[in-house]
């Protein structure tokens, strides 16, 4: 959660994701082996989901709100009263047993159910069965997006896509499976 000051929306999102990644400084290297995903420490960490080899989906939502309703973005000092929150949920998570944080092997080695991406070097693409979507349901989804274009939306993307975005926008080390 941060105050919204100057900067574009993209710059502020960049700031949030960078701050999550910067938690690598607080990460104990002794924990590189098994990670207990049911522990409170994991649930408070933002770095582990970014680095984990087992998470393949992320859904994010962003909200900006005003702390003092008497001041708005158009009043002097109004931006200092606005707060921005970016929250992401990662998955799939199996909290029943500790799991390896990283998968051993060659970077970009694609696990079962995935194959090398033609578009992004060293990243894997998920084999998705979209046969359950027919053309009418796709049109409905697009129409709904257009109707709510002025509101916040939540999208689910591949974790590989998020890592690629991090790499391209911030030149962070690219962790691949």
UniProtKB/TrEMBL annotation:
The name this protein goes by in its record: Uncharacterized protein
Keyword Secreted attached: yes
Primary localization: secreted
Keywords, in A-Z order: Secreted
Domain of life: Eukaryota
Compartments (UniProt record): Secreted
């Amino acid at each position: 959660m941060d105050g919204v000051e100057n900067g574009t929306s993209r710059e502020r999102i960049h700031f949030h994701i960078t701050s999550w990644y910067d938690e690598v400084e607080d990460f104990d290297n002794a924990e590189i082996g098994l990670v207990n995903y049911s522990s409170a420490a994991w649930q408070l960490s933002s770095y582990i989901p970014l680095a984990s080899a087992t998470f393949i989906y992320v859904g994010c939502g962003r909200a900006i709100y005003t702390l003092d309703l008497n001041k708005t973005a158009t009043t002097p000092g109004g931006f200092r009263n606005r707060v921005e929150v970016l929250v992401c949920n990662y998955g799939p998570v199996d909290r029943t047993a500790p799991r390896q944080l990283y998968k051993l092997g060659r970077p970009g080695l694609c696990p079962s159910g995935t194959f090398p991406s033609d578009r992004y070097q060293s990243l894997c693409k998920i084999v998705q069965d979209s046969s359950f979507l027919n053309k009418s349901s796709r049109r409905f989804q697009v129409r709904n997006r257009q109707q709510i274009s002025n509101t916040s939306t939540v999208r689910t993307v591949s974790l590989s896509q998020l890592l690629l975005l991090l790499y391209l926008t911030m030149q962070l080390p690219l962790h691949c499976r």
